Amino acid sequence: MLEHLTGRWGVLVMAGLRRKGPARFNHLRRRIDGVSEKMLAQTLQALERDGFVAREVLAVMPPKVNYSLTPLGESTADHLLALIDHIEREMPALLDRRGSGSEAENGSDSGSEAENDSGAPVAAR
Fold first, then answer.
1. Which residue in 37, 45, 98, 100 is deepest, having the highest Cβ count within 10 Å?
2. Maximum pairwise Cα distance, the chain
């Protein structure tokens, strides 16, 4: 379930629906630059299955489908957007640290691997 939220398209779908409200498939596709029809359909299906997105079929001809966030989706999107906003605010400092950390990348580090909170090694990206 977490991979559906934290993947590239999941985050963008959640943010797009939270910031601009419910949308039909093609409207949502235009909101999310670069997403293919197939990826958007798969992402929406996964988020719907996980309970974050609601799909409403309108009884008109031709049929119309609206996508919106469920209450769980809204609260989750709020947290995702808060994280995105936080990272964007801190980006200059993050980039400065990355630039000043080049000595470690050049081998002057003690050679120890980074660890996550549980103490497991984390691969460098």
1. 45
2. 67
pLDDT at 101: 65
Rounded distance between C-alpha atoms, residue 87 and residue 96, angstroms: 13
Q: How far is CA 75 from CA 9, 25, 44, 79, 125, in A?
A: 18, 22, 17, 7, 30
Residues in CB range of 40: below 8 A, 6 or more apart: 9, 13, 25, 28, 29, 32
**CB burial string 17-46: b at 16+ within 10 A, e below:** bbeeeebebeebbebbeebeeebbeebbeb
Query: Rounded CA gap, 82 and 89, in Å?
Result: 10
Please choose, from the candidates 59, 81, 61, 60, the residue with its C-alpha nearest in 3D space to the C-alpha of residue 69: 81
Closest CA to 23 of 73, 67, 54: 67
Q: Is 98 helix (H, G, I), strand (E, B) or coil?
A: helix
pLDDT tens, residue by residue, 13-59: 999 999 999 999 999 999 998 999 999 999 999 999 999 999 999 88
